[in-house]
Write a structure and sequence with these properties.
The chain is mainly alpha-helical. The protein has a single domain (3-55), classed as 434 Repressor (Amino-terminal Domain) (Orthogonal Bundle), CATH 1.10.260.40. It has 5 helices and no strands. It has helices at 3-13, 16-23, 27-34, 42-52, 56-59.
Length: 70
C-alpha cells in the first residue's frame, strides 16, 4: 500500500472519494493506485501530486528494481 499517498489524500481532501471528484476519476481508480494494484503514467503522477501540493517523487518513490522510464 502507498501509505504516503493515502495520508496526503486524507490530509488534503478528507477522503478518497473527494479526491476522486476533484481530479475527475473514479473512487475505484484511487483505491487501486493506493493499494498499488495499478500504476499511473508520469503525467498522471504529476497531476495527482500537484492536486495534493507535493512532488510526484514524494508521493510515488521509485522502488528498487523499477524502471525510471515509467
Amino acid at each position: 500500500m502507498n501509505a504516503i499517498l493515502k495520508a496526503e489524500i486524507i490530509k488534503v481532501f478528507w477522503s478518497q472519494a473527494n479526491f476522486a471528484d476533484h481530479i475527475g476519476v473514479s473512487d475505484s481508480l484511487i483505491s487501486k493506485v493506493v493499494r498499488e494494484r495499478r500504476n499511473l503514467s508520469q503525467n498522471e503522477k504529476t497531476l495527482w501530486a500537484e492536486s495534493l501540493g507535493v512532488s510526484a517523487s514524494y508521493l510515488f518513490p521509485q522502488k528498487r528494481g523499477e524502471n525510471s522510464s515509467d
